[in-house]
Design goal:
Chain A is an alpha/beta fold. Helices cover 35% and strands 10% of the residues of chain A. Chain A has eight helices and five strands, in the order αααααβααβββαβ. Chain B is 27% helix and 16% strand. Chain B is globular. The chains are: A alpha/beta, B alpha/beta. Chains A and B meet through α1 and α5 of A and α1 and β7 of B.
């Protein structure tokens, strides 16, 4: 009896903590199966641009000719940059044709990695880090501020096609948490950038979005003016003087 | 209130309290000693001295390619010798211990992703996935320790986390690996309180039903489709808990072996669509029989319930079909329920059939057959005829004075003299030793799917080269298209073709000629060219016979063994009495209008439209009969269900007819007719044994025939519809509408 009560209480607590309509976490931007749409169906022609053809050749040259399939991830990445940040099914088919494997082998890779977007994203795809350190430093507020400012849901593109917001896993910037990444697809694969904006606040993130909307390139890295890269706020607190001489014999003198 | 009642009440409340207490510290492990694994392990150390001898599991065969490579491992203290490179799981199987598994399948590559086969290995810090771990010398494997059991229980709990509890409505129920193993390793309760995931079902075509929520991601179907079936359609999409099996872009599984994914799926995720919700497997009676839909003679189990064939499953036969069967074999059974002939019938003057008694029908046939000249009597055996009935037909018509008996598919001038000229001399299993294939006018993928699976297996394993002469065709392995007509063969024979050098350098060249060539007027010339090629490539040697014919129909080999050869190839045009024993693919236009046609068979198919009398016979699932497959292996069908209506076995009908016609055949029993067969073709009675041909083509007389320029034609137009049963099948009709490559 007591056990059942406890279990029920636990369930209630869990339900209270569960996220709103979002429910389960989605790892990538799309379903694990393809649904035809006017801009994403297998019979649409798709090929690499002239400039990217040479890049494809260069990528393939990294691998032995009997292991062409090793190039699947770099080629998918290139295709994604070229196609404005997402991979239509015909682009995946083209990659499969180039590396001479069955298309399903490419679909498997593209669905596995959440960095490959299989639905449309904005020209600036904003990825909020949701892993523990960033979450503790308020990444949920950042995401809420972004979504509220842009008026979209997660993985939805704004009406002007400029922005979309997604979630990602830890990018290793925990020392500057919270952080977002801006994948800039506005200039194709030539001008593609993937910049981190660290130490952001809900206010600062909206400023960044507005700067991007104006076509500016806000400085990447930490957004806290008191910090230099990942150094402590207000300057160093240790290692202030000249480094001491090595505690052992001077190797250079030997 | 009596004292007893009072006492029981007290006891019950006491029991309630204790159960409640257990409830609080409930654990997934039901056996108490497992909650302290290490302590129990110390006690449960087996003494190796008094171990009973063990037998390998399921007839597992140990083959030592090199005796020096044998290593000794200890399974639960019992020493076994295994060849180097075997996995721990295989070593356990040889020691007679069944390791639970989901993803491991002996005929597929090793994935090692279900983790159910965990065992304890001494000096290994963690449990070891036995399917992926090679056995090492002196390894001490422990399969029934508390640690191994606890590990498997943990895996099982994770597998059941997202598996729906819908066993009562699942078609796999009763033959489900997950269900069976959860009886051994599952807990009676779960600790998972979250929502179970659900996955959208996929449309794989008319044969395979999917309930993807039940999938446990063992990837057996993905590996089967990629490795055995050769259609890279299925894949593993997504990651983590969102992982699912699918095709991504909606695509039907267009393989002729797709039904096998139903068998290899360890859970109810992939089940048979035609069999869905039809029966529970424990209600079915299994009859071990063989398949007659092609010349391979795949070993099958016919599952029946009462008078109905419910489904067909493969049976293991390493020499013929391994453990796969083609979709046609698996799903054509519903044709056995449609269009059946159940009463003897006579066509009246108004052109309509009228059901009559056997006595009347046979009397009419006997009267007509005695009125025509012996040379005007013609008998044609059908594709699905067994050896007994063909023997009876030949004996009967011979006694009537006619020698015009043949089996359809053998062409106008069949060669029945040299057995090596019409069987697969290499044997189906022997194809795996070949290193170069030359396919002449044959498309094994549609003509004999299981032979094609063997060729594909060989090509995959040894990178064997395949050359193909014939019309453009669909192959699921790498091949070179050498030409469409016999000219390409002539070029190879004369050494002018680039493929020649590959063929000449081959160690075990294998030439396969399709039975479609039998229908060509220049077939002798083609065979003589092929024999020249075989001679040049040294394909026929004492230790290797690589000159093969791939037959099309189940009856063909036996009919040629029995010598069903027409006296003249124009006999049907001048016939007055035509006896069609299940022959539905004879050209009915050739039969003269005034001829009297008797159709004896089980299906109202094409020939019935021309028949004057119909004699209903039993189908392969209802009779005992011997069939010789394309490699010359005689096998017998076993009756699984009762005959339909008033139908009788083919040979019995002919025996009865012979008596009424006044030429009584001297056998009344199956053993009687078989001893008659023994005098004609003793190899047919070597059941389940392959009798190789004694003489090779070298004793053949010289051929003075010129090859023609006509290209080879496809022998099988539609894989799914080749005979009377498959043409009556609704499932096969759906398949040919949806799955055929246009």
């Amino acid at each position: 009896m007591l056990g059942r009560l406890a279990a029920q209480r636990l369930l209630e607590i869990r339900q209270a903590f569960r996220l709103g309509p979002q429910g389960s976490r989605s790892f990538s931007t799309a379903l694990n199966y393809h649904i035809d749409s006017p801009d994403n169906k297998p019979d649409l022609p798709w090929e690499f641009t002239e400039a990217n053809q040479t890049k494809v050749k260069e990528i393939l040259s990294h691998y032995p000719s009997n292991y062409k399939q090793s190039a699947v991830i770099p080629l998918l990445d290139l295709a994604q940059q070229q196609h404005g940040g997402w991979l239509p099914v015909s682009a995946m088919n083209e990659v499969a044709r180039i590396i001479e494997v069955a298309p399903i082998r490419v679909y498997e890779v593209a669905t596995f990695y959440s960095m490959f977007n299989r639905t449309k994203v904005g020209k600036y795809h904003l990825l909020v880090c949701g892993t523990t350190p960033c979450m503790l430093r308020g990444s949920r507020d950042i995401e809420d501020a972004l979504l509220k400012h842009l008026g979209v849901k997660r993985n939805e593109v704004t009406k002007d096609g400029l922005f979309s917001v997604g979630e990602m896993e830890c990018m290793g910037c925990c020392v500057n948490a919270p952080m977002i990444t801006v994948a800039d697809y506005s200039n194709g694969s030539e001008g593609y950038t993937y910049n981190y904006y660290e130490d952001i606040t809900p206010k600062r993130v909206v400023e960044i979005v507005e700067a991007l909307r104006r076509g500016e390139k806000p400085p990447r890295g930490t957004q806290n003016p008191e910090r230099i890269n990942s150094g402590p706020e207000g300057g160093n607190t240790t290692l202030l003087g000249e480094p001491k001489a090595p505690p052992c014999r001077d190797l250079d003198a030997c | 209130m009596g004292l007893g009642l009072l006492a029981s009440r007290t006891l019950r409340s006491a029991r309630l309290r204790t159960t409640n207490f257990h409830h609080l510290r409930r654990s997934i492990v039901s056996t108490t000693e497992l909650q302290n694994a290490e302590a129990a392990q110390a006690q449960a150390e087996p003494s190796p001295a008094d171990l009973p001898p063990r037998t390998p599991l399921a007839g597992a065969r140990v083959h030592f390619p090199n005796p020096d490579d044998a290593i000794e491992v200890f399974v639960d203290g019992y020493p076994v010798k295994v060849p180097k490179g075997m996995t721990v799981l295989q070593a356990c199987e040889i020691a007679g211990i069944d390791i639970p598994r989901f993803c491991y399948h002996s005929r597929l590559s090793i994935a090692g992703n279900c983790r159910m086969c965990l065992v304890e290995v001494e000096k290994s810090p963690k449990p070891v996935a036995s399917c992926a771990m090679p056995a090492l010398p002196g390894m001490k494997i422990k399969t029934d320790t508390p640690l191994a059991k606890k590990a498997r229980e943990g895996v099982m709990e994770f597998l059941l986390m997202n598996h729906p509890l819908d066993c009562p409505i699942c078609d796999q129920g009763g033959e489900c690996d997950l269900q069976d193993q959860s009886m051994a390793f599952g807990s009676d309760r779960g600790r998972f309180t979250e929502v179970k995931r659900s996955v959208v079902d996929k449309n794989l075509g008319p044969l395979v039903k999917t309930v993807m929520t039940r999938c446990i991601q063992c990837t057996r179907c993905v590996r089967f489709a990629t490795e055995v079936a050769g259609v890279q359609d299925l894949g593993m999409l997504g990651r983590g808990s969102g992982e699912e099996i699918g095709t991504y872009v909606e695509k039907l599984m267009t393989s002729e072996l797709s039904g096998n994914v139903i068998d290899i799926c360890p859970v109810g995720a992939l089940t048979s669509k035609p069999f869905a919700f039809k029966a529970r497997n424990w209600e079915l009676k299994g009859t071990e029989s063989i398949d007659v839909s092609d010349a391979v003679g795949s070993n099958i189990r016919i599952d029946s319930r009462g008078p109905e064939v419910m489904r067909i499953l493969p049976r293991l036969n390493e020499d013929i079909n391994e453990e796969w069967i083609s979709d046609k074999t698996r799903f054509f059974y519903d044709g056995l329920k449609r269009q059946r002939l159940n009463d003897p019938m006579i066509r009246g003057p108004d052109g309509r059939f009228k059901a009559v008694s056997w006595r009347d029908a046979l009397a009419v046939v006997a009267e007509v057959i005695n009125q025509v000249k012996p040379s005007e009597i013609v008998g044609v055996a059908g594709k699905l005829s067994d050896a007994e009935s063909m023997m009876a037909l030949k004996d009967f018509l011979n006694r009537m004075g006619s020698n015009n008996v043949w089996c359809e598919g053998n062409g106008p001038q069949p060669n029945a003299d040299l057995r090596s000229g019409y069987i697969m001399n290499t044997s189906i299993g022997g194809l795996e030793k070949a290193d170069v294939f030359l396919l002449v006018g044959t498309q094994p993928r549609v003509e004999a799917a299981m032979v094609n699976a063997r060729i594909r297996k060989t090509v995959r394993a040894t990178q064997a080269k395949v050359g193909y002469v014939g019309p453009a065709a669909d192959f699921n392995y790498d091949h070179q298209h050498l030409g469409t007509g016999p000219q390409a063969l002539a070029e190879i024979a004369e050494g002018r073709h680039p493929f020649c050098s590959i063929l000449m350098n081959a160690k075990n060249p294998c030439i396969i000629v399709g039975a479609g060539v039998f229908e060509r007027p220049d077939k002798d010339a083609i065979f003589s060219i092929v024999e020249t090629i075989a001679e040049k490539a040294k394909a026929v040697r004492p230790d290797w016979n690589g000159l093969n014919v791939l037959l099309l129909n189940a009856a063909q080999a036996a009919s040629l063994d029995l010598g069903l050869v027409p006296e003249s190839d124009k006999s049907i045009e001048s016939a007055k009495f035509v006896y069609l024993m299940g022959a539905d693919d004879v050209n009915l236009d050739k039969i003269p209008d005034d001829a009297f046609v008797v159709y004896q068979g089980h299906h109202g198919d094409q020939s019935v439209y021309r028949a004057n009398v119909i004699l209903p016979a039993s189908a392969f699932s209802e009779k005992e009969g011997i069939y010789v497959n394309t490699e010359g292996c005689a096998q017998t069908t076993i009756p699984a269900v009762p005959t339909v209506g008033d139908a009788r076995d083919d040979w019995k009908i002919i025996r009865a007819l012979s008596e009424i016609s006044g030429v009584r055949l001297p056998y009344d029993t199956l053993s009687g007719i078989r001893s008659r067969i023994k005098t004609v073709a003793p190899n047919i009675l070597q059941i389940e044994e392959r009798e190789p041909a004694a003489f090779s083509y070298s004793v053949k007389p010289e051929i003075r025939q010129e090859i023609s320029n006509t290209t080879f034609e496809a022998a099988v137009e539609n894989f799914y519809m080749t005979d009377a049963i498959t043409r009556a099948s609704k499932i096969m009709a759906q398949c040919s509408a949806l799955l055929r490559k246009k």
